[in-house]
Write a structure and sequence with these properties.
165 residues, mainly beta, eight-stranded antiparallel beta sheet, three-stranded antiparallel beta sheet, 14 strands, 6% helix, 38% strand, disordered N terminus
Length: 165
């Protein structure tokens, strides 16, 4: 009888959440210890100080870019949202050492699917800050809200960014 008053889901907005790509503490980009990310030169998003060595897909999509050094990957969702995950600070200098790709460029992946694994012992030995950034590359086409700043998050569970068109 009261179905009339219930809010109907907006079909264009469902499924537009990006979940944590690793377990850890979510922080605003402004707190990242790298001016390229903290200044949002590459785009806006969030960062996670990881407590896990596996980086997962924050949404369903295609792996559109996999850095040769395995420290970063890009994804494209079916609706056109483009994002990048950058694992650690100055990790490109490692030339792939300590990273293992679990997927290939062009692969279709599901939210929560493991994509990259890193060796925490290698990173610790080299003094690498493993803060991992999730950057929206075409945010002008979307309205988005970052969530979970300063909170503990679990990969594939906690939403860290909500997007809508």
């Amino acid at each position: 009888m009261f179905q009339f008053f219930k809010k109907k889901p907006d079909l264009e907005k469902t499924g537009l959440e990006l979940t944590a790509m690793t377990d850890g503490r979510c922080i605003p980009l402004e707190e990242v210890n790298d001016p390229v990310f903290s200044g949002k030169a590459l785009g806006d998003g969030i960062a996670i100080v990881p407590e896990d060595c596996v980086i997962a897909a924050p949404c369903d999509g295609t792996v559109s870019m996999l850095a040769e050094t395995l420290h970063a990957f890009g994804m494209t969702r079916d609706d056109g949202l483009e994002l990048m995950v950058h694992i650690g600070i100055d990790t490109v200098a490692l030339k792939g050492e300590g990273f293992e790709a679990l997927v290939s460029q062009g692969d279709q992946v599901k939210k929560g699917e493991p994509l990259i694994r890193f060796d925490a012992a290698v990173m610790e030995k080299k003094g690498i800050d493993m803060t991992t950034m999730l950057i929206l590359l075409n945010p002008g086409q979307y309205q988005f809200k970052t969530l979970a700043g300063g909170q503990q998050v679990k990969k594939n569970v906690d939403t860290v960014i909500e997007c809508s068109r």
